[in-house]
Amino acid sequence: MDIEALQQKLAEFSAERDWERFHNPKNLAMALAAEAGELIEVFQWLSEADSLALNSAQRRAAELEIADVLIYLVRLADRLGVDLDAAVAVKMQINAERYPVELAKGNATRADRRD
Amino acid sequence: MDIEALQQKLAEFSAERDWERFHNPKNLAMALAAEAGELIEVFQWLSEADSLALNSAQRRAAELEIADVLIYLVRLADRLGVDLDAAVAVKMQINAERYPVELAKGNATRADRRD
Amino acid sequence: MDIEALQQKLAEFSAERDWERFHNPKNLAMALAAEAGELIEVFQWLSEADSLALNSAQRRAAELEIADVLIYLVRLADRLGVDLDAAVAVKMQINAERYPVELAKGNATRADRRD
Amino acid sequence: MDIEALQQKLAEFSAERDWERFHNPKNLAMALAAEAGELIEVFQWLSEADSLALNSAQRRAAELEIADVLIYLVRLADRLGVDLDAAVAVKMQINAERYPVELAKGNATRADRRD
What we know:
Four copies of one chain form a homotetramer.
Chain A: H1 3-16, H2 25-43, H3 56-80, H4 84-98, H5 101-104
């Protein structure tokens, strides 16, 4: 995925509509969270198993909401000057330290929520 | 960004921890939305202007939450078999039709929410 | 529940801390959504059955996040001048019309997401 | 607000539609978060000042989304057996200790996000 090209396209889309003034990080984070809400709406009454076997309408909806989240995420990163590759690398290192294999094996529960 | 390589890494991270059974689309969508909630928490009391001028602690938090959202989004797309590039292309086409420049200029409000 | 008394307490809590300027509807809606994200974080890796049998740490977390959502919801309603009882009555009437028993029986899927 | 009467009504609404099996805490938390997403969607492009001066369409939308969040919150509390009054009292006590007036005055930023 060419993130920079996508960011360029999204910036043009906004500039053409004079939307730059709306697209500050606060508002973009809100828009991203609203789309995340629409994404979970697709899955909220489905069983975990059924969420792996969507019908065509559910699948179409999931694809479009995933795209919406990604669009706002990429736009937000652009406005903040965040390097997505670097941020993901840092976070994955943190996760590896926070969830060592021997402790996390078969248990996704946060340490402070366990019995 | 090499999405497939990232998906491969995330799949290995999960497999090593025996987390595959937790990582169905329903649960991943929830995890994504939870991270989106943590992302907006960074911005909720900031003015729109201040959201463009984060201090270092806020910026660090924003970067890590953006990474979390992206990680779960990429993982979710993998589990659903969604092609992110294609989904974004479809959604941008829909947006271009839904928000024609002449109508959307300077106004981000949905048509049904305008005066 | 005495909503007005709670709104009065929350207004005093904010006034004492000079937080009124942060507590506009936009920011309060963000704070509510951030707390909703923390609430789903409690449940994201649990099975549906296990979500009915929380351990004490999970239960404590759920109670506090539910309280947080309610606090921001009541505060938001106050700032907007929304009558919660009236709003709920209107919405329940809409739901009764949208989901007639004969069509909705055993099926919570939105009409446009069915096979 | 008569929470118990509302919970009774919501339980009847679900039972008539054979929706009890969908209404476990995991799914209800998701539904609540989805509605919180729709609520922030009302405010995402509005300035903080404009969020206090909604037009009639925005206000109607905000009222209905607030009602939706409250409905799912009350239903979730019922399914978990959470006493909302008690939970709010506990949380407000925690907040009073976490944000003492002298430290929080005019500053809503979390201690770990300050300069």
